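User: Protein folding is very new to me. Would you mind checking the protein record under this note? It all follows right here:
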Amino acid sequence: MIMWMKRWLKILLLFVVVIILSMLVITQRLSSTINSYQTEQSGRSETRNVTAINSNQSKQKRTIQRTDTSKMKKQHKHIARKNYRKTCTVMRLKNRLRGKINGMTQCKKHPFLSRDCYSNFYKPYAIDIEGACRKPGSKQFCSITGTPDQWGVHCNITSCGKKVYLGTKTIDRINWKVYGNKEDLQKSIANLIQSSTTRFCFISCFTLHSHGFEPQILNLPPPPQRTNHKAKRKSRREQNHMNLNFIMIDSVSRVHFFRSLPRSVKALNEITTEHEDAMVLDFELVQGIRSRTFETLQALFSGYVNPYEVPFGINDLSKEKLNVAKWLLPLRELDFSSLWLEDMCPFTGWGLSRDLLVLNRTLDKQSFYMKFLDTCRKVGIDDIGNTLASCNILKSNGMSNPFNSKTICYNGRHHHSYLFSYLNMFQRTMNHRAKPFISYMVSSIAHELVGKRNQYIDSDLAEYLKFSSGMDNTLTIVFSDHGNAYRDSQSRNSNRVLEVFNPFLFMIIPKSVQSMLTANQMQALKINQNRLISLLDLHYTISYIIRLLQNENNSETSLDNDVNDFNNQFQCIWRGATHRNISVKNLQHHAKNNAEPLHL
């Protein structure tokens, strides 16, 4: 009993000690709080006294602070403008050749928000452009050398050892043939150039991809020319023709061209300011026809637009095929060669095979391909170049079409580089032969969800623009059908609706083409850089040029035509209208009532 009492006493004593210690701690905290409060009050009173005594000094300090704040704001604005200039610059080419417009113009371009120009999303080269397609083991065994007079073939097959394979594409496979030395390989490739069966071949150390390496695709130049006896041919010196060269980049707005393709912009500026034998025209107020490619190309080639027509489904076929024959058949009669290049595979149901209504799932590949070639010939397409190589390139990337954000590479090169390579070779050959041509190339590199992949085309496009400026007798038109109308790109861009219907349009006009036009026509071209136009106007312009070529070929009709009266019709007639609210109905009504060329 006594033991238990002692234990309880000890516990009680400990409890009392704890309470006493707690009270001491609380007392100390209260005293420190009271002291700090008194100190603060005394400090405030001193501050009030000092402030009352030195009020003038305080006002001066506040004035200095306000000045510093305004300076900081100005600095921030300057930094913002500087960042804006880095990626967005001014949305036009430098030192442009502009014509003078008499009177006030009612149409003004709708302003874009600057934050969509210098945001990180659109920062040029935010992706690895140079190394995107770099792959160990990629090899280039052979190259085409020489000139169109005498093409040569140079090969280096030492990395293959004793055997190298040459492949030619059939409809559904590659036929391989083995060679033991480079001389035999070079001779066989030279024979392919002389034939008209193919525009490219495959070269590899292996017949299959089991080793992880992709064969080299070697583009072959057009075969030797065959004279069209129906056309009246002239000697090279006497011949005076105008080649038509179209480059379309699908789904790139004007703003996106300037902010994401700085090398191409630089190339156009250099042609404008440094190239004495060519000029570049930049048309700012281009109104889109539709937010889809087919309807836009139909307006370009045929002049047809129906704003009341319900668009067909994305997986459906159009009611009418793309009417490229309206241009190509008359040009064929003038002995023009026509080239159509695209980065889509005809067998997968996209591109030209769909646009010409050849697509038929019930046909076998052999029947489908023969029907496709026959339809191309009937509408005036003579050559599809290396378009069929796109089937192998897309298949190697696990794709049936290029409409996603994946980088498309083959043997260490971008997909579009194969198209530019063949286009360059074709045009050099035609120019050397003094053979008139019309060429159309489309790249779908920007037809994807994010809006960044088009940066990969910048270097190759810039080089090609420089090349095209040196081509005699060739009018080059670089354009887009519409801006990026797809999911992720639109969600990141507050100007998405404006950009969809604001495509870009540039013309490269060498002196040889300028000499074919009158001073009035060239002046009209310059003036219309500042006027509202669409691809309907471009259709009437090219149609007018074709009529001039027909007249000259038949009766040597003079090209001297006065277009001032016609251009006066294209003053903006919709009072108060901005670039974004001009409808397709208005464009069609305008084109219907003024079915004449715009003379861009």
